Amino acid sequence: MALHKLEPDTVTFNAAISACENAGEWEKATLLLAEMLQSETTSDTITFNAAISACEKGETWEQSLQLYRVMLGSMVELDTITYNATISACEKSGEWA
Question: Is the pTM of this model over 0.85?
Answer without folding.
Answer: yes
